[in-house]
Amino acid sequence: EDDGIRFRGRYNQNQEDILNLENYEGTNENGITVKKLCMFKDEENDLKTTRIFYHNDKLKIENNAKVLLLVGELEVGKASLVNIMVNHIFGLDSGECKYRIRVVCDPDKNNQPDLLTIYCFPKHKSMIYDNSYALITGDNLYSASENHLHKKMLLLKDFLKKNNGVNELHAICFVVKSDLAQTDYLKYAFESIFSMFGYDIKHNIFVLTTFVNPIDEPPVLKALDELKLHYDTLFRFDHRIIKESGCVLNEHGKQNISDNLTGIFKRINEKKPCDLNLTNVVVQERNRLNTIIEQLQNKIKTGINTMSELQRKKTEAPNPASLNEVKAELKYLEELVFHKIDEAKRVFKNLNQLSVSKTNLQTRNGIIENLIKYEKNNKEVNFEDRIGTLQKIKDRNEYMENLLKA
């Protein structure tokens, strides 16, 4: 009761029917049956970049829902975390219960790795907390372009707005592997993602480390300390004691998972949610900055063509009227370019005041350069694609840096 828990392990034979379980998926070595939870897909709002599932056929969730966003790269364990969180929410992580439920199957790594997936759980009599929940997962965000992150934020905003005016986020769970000691990679990941949020979200950030060795200190902790990155609480999950379905294999694992999940949901249920109004402003300003840069690039291209035209006319038979006309056009373009540069500076300054992450282009480019070297040295799967994306981001940052110096 102190944790806000209504009951734990309240299990009866009718609970399977109450939860609307569908597929039998087998029994693990501890005699625990794994079943799939029936979820209804929102076909009407289905997009190529987002999927929404509900644990009822009304396709609605209460406006007091606790909204959790789990972000991280592919294969850091987000699917397992969602599964064990859902088992915990429905009180199925106790010793009395002889089955577990699976919500997320292993995603096809070759199928839409940048998908945003939303799992909605309205209030249910089998839940141990008196809340409804929305669990949102996003992949491929560390090495994503700013434009890609911006699109993800718009999708998140649209989902929150659609669901009975829900406009709150209770937790951003930053999921990272425990063996990640690359401080540059970690810093870039934090900055890239949190540059899309207003600064009022900083007290709602959690770090979830996965694949933790319970004996050794995870290297990622040292990296986090060195970077002095702000987050509310850090939770450790040893994924070697979790099957893909989210089913714990041994008693040590049960305690590890139970303690962490109780801690996470206790903190989230106590948290004052962030209303995302400031984040909406950040998203709008990011969109505005992208538009300005596109306009600048087009004006500069036009200016280069006009300068070429001026040079051509100078080499031809002198025609003062024609030359003056081209010079006037060039001067007009120059004024437009500097006007846009001043506008970009104002937006950039505003973003640094509003967002969680304060963007320093010069520092960020140094980090990106180190990431490119890291990818070249390690040559892991699809490293060339990641290098290409990082190089584009670096080029864009250099372009922006030159504009700010103009």
TrEMBL record:
Gene3D superfamilies per UniProt: P-loop containing nucleotide triphosphate hydrolases
Domain of life: Eukaryota
InterPro entries hit by this protein: P-loop_NTPase
Protein's recorded name: G domain-containing protein
